[in-house]
Each structure stands twice: as C-alpha cells, then as structure tokens.
Design goal:
The complex is a heterodimer of chains A (135) and B (239). With 135 residues, chain A is mainly beta. Chain A contains two helices and six strands. Helices cover 16% and strands 26% of the residues of chain B. Chain B has three helices and nine strands, in the order H-E-H-H-E-E-E-E-E-E-E-E. Chain B has a nine-stranded mixed barrel. In chain B, strand 8 and strand 9 form a beta hairpin. Chain B starts with a helix and ends in a 27-residue tail after the last strand. Classes of the chains: A mainly beta (135), B alpha+beta (239). The interface between A and B is medium-sized, with 34 and 36 residues.
Chain lengths: 135, 239
Amino acid sequence: MRSTFFPVLALASALLWGPPAVAHHGFSVEFDDSKPVTLHGVVTKMEFMNPHIYFYLDVKDAGGKVVNWAFEGSPPNILSRQGWRKDSVKPGDVLTAKGFRARDGAHLVACSTVTFEDGRQLTVGGGNVKGYDKN
Amino acid sequence: MTEPSRAPLIGIVAALLASLFLTSCSGQGAGGAQASGPPDFNGVWSAPFTPDISKPLGHQPPFTPYAADLFKKEDEIDDPLTQCLPIGPARGIQAGIMPFQIVQTPAVTAILFENQRTFRIINTDGRSHPKDPDATWFGDSIGHWEGDALIVDTVGLNDRTWLDTAGHQHSDQLHLVERFQKIDKDNIKWTVTFEDPKFYTEPWSVTLPIKRQTTEIMSYSCEENEKDRAHLRRTNTKK
C-alpha cells in the first residue's frame, strides 16, 4: 500500500545507510551528469529485479510521437529498505521521472525520483550523482 | 539445633555461592567478551560505504611505481563488480549499503555477504594456511582470538578483485590481516592491513566502524537482469 510513509521511510533509510549508492557500476561509465532530464508519461512495464530495477515510460515528444524510455534505479534490496514494494511503480501509473541520460544516447535514464500525479514522490536512487556508485 | 538441621542451610548457601560464581563466569566484558569464551559476533552488520579505501588514510597508499601507473590508467569499466564478479574479502566488509551476517561457531566464523550472496569462511580451529594454496576470490582465512578481538589472516587471493570502487588494486601476493575488535554489543572496530610487495612499498592499514543492523540479509544477484554492459563507455575520470 502506497502512503505518505514513503518519504519518511526514504529519509530514515538515508540516515541509516547514507547516500543512496545503487549500482554495481560507477555512474560516469554509463550516464552523463551534464544531461539531466525530466520526463512525463505512462508506465508500460516494471522489472523489480537485480542488479537494477527498470521501469519503462511511454513519453510523447514535442511532435506527439510516443517514445518508450527506460529508467534504471537501485536494486530491490536497497529499495525495499527504503519502503518500496514491487508494485510501488506499476503499469498504468502516470508519473514524472527525473534523472540523467545515458552517455550513448539511448533512451535510458539513471532515475533519481518519480512523482505521481497526486504529488507522492519516491526516491529511485540512480540519479543522485554524488551518491551513485557501484557496490 | 542438631547437626542434621544445619545441612539444608549450608546447602542453600553453597548453591547461592555457586550460582554467583557461575553468573560471574558467564557475564560479558565491556566488549562483549565472555569470560568463558570469545566475544559473540553473531548478527547482521554493516560498515560505512567507503568507495575510496584510501580516504581514511588521508593520502594515497604507498604505491610501488607499477601500482601508481596502473592506478592512473585504470577505468571503472574494468572494475570486477561492473562485470558482476565477486567483491572480495575486505571490500565486502565496507560494501556499506549491502550488509553482511556473521555466523560464529567455535571452529569456524562465516561472513555471509548480501552482495551477490557470497561468503567467507574463517577457520578458528588452530589450523595453518595450506602450503602454496591455489589463488581464489576470497583466499584462505584463518583466525584466532585475542581478548575481545578476532584476528583474521588471509592469503591465497587471486589478483582479480579491487580493494575499492576507486580502483586500488592488488596482486596475488596480497596478505590481509584484519582485527575485528568488539567494542560493545552493537559495535565492532575493524582494522584491515594490506600487505602486497608488488603493489605497495610497505603495509598500510585503515580502520572503519562496523555497526549492528536491524535488517536481515536480502537477495542480490548481479546477473539476474543485467542490462548495463551494452551502454558502458570508457571515461577514466581520474586523469
């Protein structure tokens, strides 16, 4: 059940565990911190799996063309300790996701946060450049 | 009063004294050491994530010229963890966000890492290292107790793990000495000494705090849904 507990849990987790290091690889070998991106769309798929979670978002570009973007986040063990569940983000959800684009130009983002239409926000982990590091 | 009537009283006093003596023997010292045995390390623990293991030193470790050159050239893309390979014995301790569980028996202390669900076996039965061991990811570890501390000696490591995220590396001549000092029931002081004549001109040590966690070990499998490799690019941000 999603609730306002999420921000509290995320904060508690940050205090317990420090910056949200998320990955098995360094940030800079895959993503570009000079390319922040904010995208709004509908979730088409969720992979609550290791070594990263991925969710996919149908996003309309300026010309109205729909492009499916991939968003990468912390692994399930880290997110679970922050209060996440496998259905915290699920197909059909409409949300705004922030993060940083992949260096190779793919439609791939290291996601830092998602914000739902009702204002709830979740930390996803991957876009905190200073904290993003392999483990 | 007759002699037989004193016997129960003497018996009760003797039992109380014996009870006090036994309680004293089983009591724990400041570091959790039991007078009758080693300190209890059982539980789930975590040290602060330390991506650059030289940071606690305040300077780079004493590189040999070979190691200094390698450190400048290395790229994070070559980190064994990026390739989903094992984390290694010391780096596993300071993996930070992924805790580890210690399971302690008289003859063996096992460290179970959440990171890739790998583990260390530390033999505390008095054995020596095998002669000329084959090099492996976690090496051969033997341990002994010194008061409130477990001293662990590890050899037989391959040269494929890194010591940290920053890219401090080592050869198969790496010799690790770790001191797990029990401070109290929730705290351990961990000191690791790296000795590797091929990479470092002299042994160097760092100390980190290890704290008891309220969590349990969870699942983590690097290969389950790995999709990063196709997108990785060489950056060598160190230059």
